[in-house]
Write a structure and sequence with these properties.
8-stranded antiparallel sheet, Alpha-D-Glucose-1,6-Bisphosphate, Chain A, domain 4
């Protein structure tokens, strides 16, 4: 297993609001990067999409810990073992931190090629997510 941890992002939103936003994958629609993802479809607990240059993927929420964690696991492809944890932690009132951890089962040669792109991707996800959350009033 190859594990990659994002940088930690900060938002002024309360952890309850961040959790409520992340616990429904339909809310992620405006955050989908069109340059790398096509045919995004989502419902509350699942999403399906085409990753340009890779193929079809699906993710499903498999664990929720209110105000702290949303965990997703891949669907459709039993040969790809991929898990994503989105961790939420309130540091102080008006200061909530978000970190994403990705874990993928792949051979070491593939991991050495994919890891830098995965690192860049989850760091970009944190940036985009925190910027979006901070723009939302009454989330």
């Amino acid at each position: 297993m190859s594990r990659v941890v994002s940088k930690t992002g900060a938002t002024g939103q309360d952890p309850e609001k961040v959790y409520t936003f992340l616990a429904d994958l339909r809310h992620l629609d405006p955050l989908v990067p069109e340059e790398t993802i096509e045919n995004w479809q989502s419902c509350e607990n699942q999403c399906h999409f085409q990753l340009k240059g890779f193929g079809s993927l699906g993710m499903e929420i498999v664990e929720k810990t209110p105000h702290k964690l949303v965990k997703l696991k891949n669907l459709q492809n039993p040969t790809l073992d991929f898990t994503l944890w989105i961790q939420i932690k309130q540091v102080s009132p008006g200061d909530t931190r978000i970190r994403i951890t990705a874990e993928a089962g792949m051979n070491p040669a593939l991991a050495s090629m994919v890891t830098p792109y995965l690192q860049k991707g989850i760091n970009a996800m944190v940036d985009k997510l925190t910027a979006y959350l901070d723009q939302q009033e009454g989330l």
